[in-house]
């Protein structure tokens, strides 16, 4: 697949249909902080970032070569965010990409752009993220974006009554 140029921008109210569609994916739905089943739920997801962090829509920038089921310029294909910012200038990073955009390096580039913004514009020093140990794709995103593994938190997450270990990664402004 052809690499895709991206840009980050604030989420807007007209992104509600994309958020709703993204969270209809069973994997995304399972990781959602609350059920996102209606346009009002999707509006709530966008609004929930106000005052708790910085979330950015990941948008395709520039022309994209024609491919079957390809992406289009201006299409929102994911989210990247930093939240949980504390008095020590640490933040927690999260990301997701819609199914049709996965495997193109979009999450890596979005996470790199977010880290640069967080360090240079927001003045953070340490960014952390975690992924289930059974999610090698998310691990690749973290390491390719410069986040070093720091250890495994046993039984940290619970989905549908099943406990999952989480590998924590971090990136410092000095890395």
Count the beta strands: 7
Task: Report the sheet-strand fraction.
Answer: 25-35%
Number of helices: 5
User: What is the annotated CATH architecture?
Assistant: 3-Layer(aba) Sandwich
Spell the H/E element sequence. EHHHEEEHEHEE
N-C termini distance: 30 Å
Please tell me about this protein's structure:
- The protein contains 5 helices and 7 strands.
- It has helices at 16-22, 26-31, 39-47, 106-120, 136-144; strands at residues 6-10, 53-60, 76-83, 90-97, 126-132, 148-159, 162-172.
- The chain has a 7-stranded mixed beta sheet with strand order 1-2-3-4-5-7-6.
- Helix 1 (16-22) crosses helix 3.
- It starts with 5 loop residues before the first strand and ends with a strand.
Question: Brief description of this entry?
Answer:
With 175 residues, this protein is an alpha+beta fold. The chain is 26% helix and 34% strand.
Defining key terms:
175 residues, alpha+beta, Aminopeptidase, 26% helix, 34% strand
List the helices and strands and how they pair.
Elements: E1 6-10, H1 16-22, H2 26-31, H3 39-47, E2 53-60, E3 76-83, E4 90-97, H4 106-120, E5 126-132, H5 136-144, E6 148-159, E7 162-172
Parallel strand pairs: 4-5
Antiparallel strand pairs: 1-2, 2-3, 3-4, 5-7, 6-7
Helix pairs in contact: 1-3
